[in-house]
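Hi W., the protoporphyrin IX containing FE complex you wanted:
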Amino acid sequence: MIYVMNFYYKYFTRVNPLPGPFPFPLVGNFPQIYWWFNGDGQMFHNYCYEKYGDIYEIYDHSRSIVLCRVDYLENFFSNKNMHWMRFPNCKGLKELGIEGKGIVVNNNYKSWVFNRHFISQAILSPKFTDEAIDQTNKLFNELESYWNKLVLFHKEEIIKENKNIIDFAEWLKHYTNDMIIKLLTGERSYSMAAYFNTFGGEKSDYPSVEIEDSVKLFQALHKLIIGYSIFFFITPFLRNCIPFFKNIADDTLKSMRFFNQKLEVIIKKRRKEIKDTSLDESLPHDMLTSMIIKNTFRDVNYIEVGEAARSMTNSEIRANLLDGIINGTYKTASILSFVIYYIAHNPDVKKKMLEEVDYIFQGDKMRPITKDDFYNLSYCEAIVKEVARVCPITHSFARCIDKSEEIAGYQWPVGTSFRFNVRAIHHDDDYWEEPNKFNPDRWLVENFETKNSFIMFGGGLRMCPGRKLAMIELVCLIALLFRTYEINLIDTNSPIKATSDIIIISCDELLVEIKPRN
Ligand code: HEM
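Structure:
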């Protein structure tokens, strides 16, 4: 009773009261999200934007101000202000064992700068880019080999049994999982092989122990992604006392322990491999190796300058790997499924894209894709950006201000939480011409884009460090796929099957028919 009275006292005396759905104690606006929109965060934000306009407030475990206009973002992304914190401190981070670790939810500025610097140096380097292109070719060949076995070589029986239909979204999640694990840790995972094996009949050539391991890793990752938000957005009382939330929280902690153990083994093994490699031999370019050798004598830029230039501990490396793996799996996969969907619904765009792809490869369906090809595939890149603009996969992302500031015409106290409604920003008609039109050509006009109006990868200091890698994966895969295959949606009339949680929108299923292009 006291809690409820206190909650509503604070609510009715809050600074700058704004319109928004009425909150409930302990659960904030979750009842509305679940009762009205079946848990769909994007639909909830669409509703709030239409009903309340450019600025409204919502509640999870605390109050957040949601901004929907491009000009409201200036204070967050300019170098002058540097509001760098994403979420306020919360007990959940400690329970998950990630307080002050990694980068995504790290609220310790010094530690975040240290980790972010390591990660950026590792994955924005030219050698890492080469490695990403190389792995794209290798893993795409593997993906094709499974499709060939499943779909293309056994035509008659498969067509009879309707097996030429594949769930593209599911294949992509396994593909991006194998890709990110290889690029970040240097280790192979066999998520695609495991998925292939579920179809019965022929099995993949990889040893079954390795495949089973990958299945466990993939399942643990899935549980972590689902369960993570319970630790940020749900109050400790619900998480610890209500069985529904407690079960998810326990499962998430179990997956976290499992993941940490796996990563610890990989890190120790790599440290030993590096130690056993003579100085004149080169080392691989995965993120793990780069993080281990940074600020050691194996680092080509090594200078000894005290604490700031210290090397990384295993627990820091683990947290960074986990951040990268979680962020690098589902987002890239979902956006590519949306790309396939939009291409199928826009024949003119498809025609132009095929012309670009055919021009680049000149009829050669076998040669690997190169870095130059990637830079020349400007229309494919435009398609990715336009799909991400009209159909963002992160419906909102957050900042918490570390000093009092005037934002959107109101003065806000330190510690206020904000969210940016990505879809509203991407459709702000003061900044986008015909915002509702799907038009990749707009991206071909140089410098047309206004500052902060496109926030697919966020903005400011905390902008996504994986953006280049994501674009390489997306653009190269589009080119490799459409160079060889005709991909048609099974049901062109149905809307895309996607679900949106508290932050991410993911494609659940995309049934396509795939056959070789003439
Ligand atoms: C299409 C794919 C991707 C999209 C749309 C995406 C989008 C985003 C967004 C919107 C943010 C928040 C930025 C902000 O708060 O300003 C973010 C952060 C982040 N992303 Fe990505 N991302 C993608 C792929 C990746 C990949 C492949 C990686 C792998 C390394 C990655 C790693 C991260 C990390 C570590 C952060 C946290 C950065 C920080 O807090 O300093 N992302 N991403």
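Residues 243-275 form the longest helix (33 residues).

W.
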